[in-house]
Recover the amino acids of this structure.
């Protein structure tokens, strides 16, 4: 089944070229079913790229999904036009009375800042509080995961000795969890961050369990035992070239970045990077939508207030 998005969203053209079925509002009005309501809080600088990446993954289920986008009104976007935000995004004040089956909170390239130093931290805390009563299940990505763990469980991030960037092998530690159904024992996933979360801090938090971990990259996926929240420290949504673009961006800034690990064949930047994680990405997001959201969310979303 399709994902439903605004009919003029630029991401539609990219997805249609990939033969992904995208339904606009007009056609969706004739579908006599209760679609899933998914909200994406997009904190990434290049929002159009992240839109394509996440919509691509959300399309890989037989479920019809209504997708809406949210941005932080307390932050001035520098890499996305105000026209794009006005046409395709909501501010929190416009959606705070609504209910959603799922919420995705993306990463943001600000992990070296203390959470309280982030200009939209106050607004984000309001969203974290709101999602407890207005969202059934929330999927946090990278910095969004660290911010969620800090707000909900008082688990702070720590600064790594150098940026963790590359594609790493990960071990599935909790195969009985439905979000990991169908996974091999080991799979690959990209990381791109300067900070991490300590295993000991998660282990002493009763509500949480470490589901996936990497010997090289550390924790990858943490789940709340009630299936209402998941925290992924990496970027399974990334495209083949995303780490390359970040590497080249950092070079232009004069940062002298570390070459992404296990990414370029023979560490040769002139060779095409290997794409080794999209199967895992599709499976993880499909499982989240199916098992954590669709099979558990109430038909009447307003009942979330009763829980």
């Amino acid at each position: 089944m399709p994902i439903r998005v605004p009919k003029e969203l630029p991401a539609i053209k990219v997805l249609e070229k990939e033969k992904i079925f995208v339904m606009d509002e007009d056609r969706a009005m004739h579908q006599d079913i209760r679609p899933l309501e998914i909200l994406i809080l997009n904190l990434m600088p290049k929002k159009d790229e992240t839109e394509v990446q996440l919509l691509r993954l959300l399309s890989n289920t037989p479920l019809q999904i209504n997708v809406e986008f949210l941005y932080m009104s307390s932050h001035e976007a520098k890499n996305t036009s105000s026209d794009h935000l006005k046409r395709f995004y909501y501010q929190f004040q416009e959606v705070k009375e609504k209910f959603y089956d799922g919420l995705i909170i993306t990463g943001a390239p600000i992990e070296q800042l203390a959470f309280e130093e982030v200009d939209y931290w106050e607004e984000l805390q309001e969203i974290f509080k709101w999602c407890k009563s207005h969202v059934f299940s929330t999927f946090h990505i990278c910095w969004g995961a660290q911010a969620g763990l800090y707000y909900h469980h008082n688990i702070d991030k720590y600064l790594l000795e150098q940026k963790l960037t590359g594609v790493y092998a990960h071990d599935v530690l909790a195969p009985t969890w439905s979000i990991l159904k169908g996974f091999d024992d080991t799979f690959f996933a990209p990381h791109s961050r300067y900070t991490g979360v300590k295993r000991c801090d998660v282990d002493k938090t009763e509500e949480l369990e470490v589901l996936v971990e990497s010997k090289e990259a550390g924790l990858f996926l943490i789940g709340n035992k009630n299936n209402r929240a998941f925290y992924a420290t990496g970027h399974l949504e990334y495209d083949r070239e995303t780490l390359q673009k970040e590497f080249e961006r950092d070079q232009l800034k004069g940062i002298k970045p570390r070459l992404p690990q296990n990414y370029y064949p023979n560490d040769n930047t002139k060779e095409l990077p290997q794409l080794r994680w999209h199967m895992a990405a599709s499976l993880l997001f499909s499982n989240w939508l199916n098992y954590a959201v669709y099979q558990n969310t109430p038909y009447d979303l307003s009942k979330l207030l009763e829980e």
In short: The chain has one domain: 3-238+277-306.
